[in-house]
Amino acid sequence: MTAPDARTDKGRATCNRVLDAATALVFEQGVAGTTLDDVRAAANVSKGQLYHYFADKADLVHAVIDHTIEQVLGAQPALADLSSWAAIAAWFDDLVQLQVDRRAIGGCPIGGLAGELAETDEHARTELAAGFDRWEAPLREGLERMQANGKLRRRADPARLATATLAAIQGGLVLTQTRRDPQQLRIALDAAYAYLRSFAA
After folding, report:
1. For the chain, which end, N or C, has fewer CB atoms within 10 Å of the first or last residue's CB respectively?
2. What is the pTM of this model?
């Protein structure tokens, strides 16, 4: 992605407005369904302003990927510390509540981008994979701390458990989105929690 040239406060505000608008439109309409004209209108900027910060649609899409990942992770403050069973359970509760608040609309923003871009844009695929890695990392690190503190069996593999948990989240979000029912995510996370607890020391 070309680094946006936003060296002034006004420039940064304009760039962020474009990026916020593009991210919201892509979440609602998908990459293919979002045009640069859509973004210009939503952000209330000229064509010249848009192209000052982003070389083309591909450049903007890669910026949207980064922005989306930051939004998804930023909406989960519980990721700051997942080193106890209570913290993991609270994180799961927060994820379900987020879907309740969103009326089960939209699914996973990162997963949605992956479904649209992973097979056609290798750069996007690697960026999205890195985003999933960042999402997994706090749970893996929390489980590693639990293992060091004797709360998780020594034979447990925190990395595999974190991947399995993220897979449950993604599957639960797909079912929640298609069935418009946050309880689908609740069911998936209850199963994930039971699986994690089966490795408790």
Report:
1. C
2. 0.91
